[in-house]
Amino acid sequence: MESSKETGCQAPEGPILCINNCGFFGSAATMNMCSKCHKDMVLKQHQAKLAATSIENIVNGSTSITHKEAHVSVVTVEAIPVELKTNSSQPAPISGQSSEPKPKEGPTRCTTCRKRVGLTGFSCRCGNLFCSLHRYSDKHECPFDYRTAAQDAIAKANPLVKADKLDKI
Length: 169
Description:
Elements: H1 4-7, E1 16-17, E2 25-26, H2 35-60, H3 67-88, E3 122-123, E4 129-130, H4 146-157
Antiparallel strand pairs: 1-2, 3-4
């Protein structure tokens, strides 16, 4: 057996606690941090690097950016208008009166037995809401024609393939 002096490797003297004092053990490969703290540090460095490059591109007016940075920029730009749309879609009431009075919505109920269903209601293809007892089409006399809908779906998924006729000699 070779000694540690010959190979240049040193055996760890004992477990090393994470330098962030999170209570887990670190290793020399992760700069004496536990895996979670090391992953968080690498993520923060990556985000800081992306922020610095995007700020630099904005300041310099540079249009030459990599594909990953372009993707991040597009996501950031798209997120801002979405927030503006949600804020602008709610009109502010003028002098205490709104232009469209909203009707008070009651609790959601089963169409057949009028039982309160709340969030656990089942919507049927006929457009009604049902409880767990009446959710099946045979239990609530559903007017929806499942057979015709299935035939239409099969016909749409499997178009008719017709070969050209052969010329007679």
